[in-house]
Amino acid sequence: MKIIKCLSGKIEEELHDAQAYIDLAMRWKQEDPQTAEMFYVLSTEEMGHMERLHKRVAELISEYRNTRGDPPKEMMTLYEYLHEKHIGEATEIKVKQGLYKA
């Protein structure tokens, strides 16, 4: 399903941006707390976007199963690979967000 490929690409963009923003928040936390806080908020907003995109992917897979049966094995293999990669990146970002707030 081409839409899942599109959504996965957008998920990666959101994760990349969330990572960049939390890195900036950590970088500027001591020197410019207001700007650092803005970067932190932007990072959390990007994670919210990522979660919305991921939810839609899950809905599409569920809809496919309900109407056509199990998705093709190749599609699920790729999805599972990307999903694990995204989970790892999201976890790293959430840890940094937690450290920022500590």
**What is the element string, with H for helices and E for strands?**
HHH
| Count of separate DSSP helical elements | 3
Helix content: over 70%
Number of strands: 0
Report the mean per-residue pLDDT as an integer.
96
Q: Low-confidence stretches at least 5 residues in length (pLDDT < 50)?
A: none
Instruction: Give the termini distance in whole angstroms.
Output: 41 Å
Q: What fraction of residues sit in β-strands?
A: under 5%
Biggest sheet, open or closed, and with what strands and sense? none
Outline type: elongated
Class by SSE composition: mainly alpha
Number of domains: 1
Give the radius of gyration.
16 Å
Structure, briefly:
Helices cover 90% and strands 0% of the residues. The protein is an all-alpha fold and 102 residues long.
Supply the key terms.
102 residues; elongated; mainly alpha
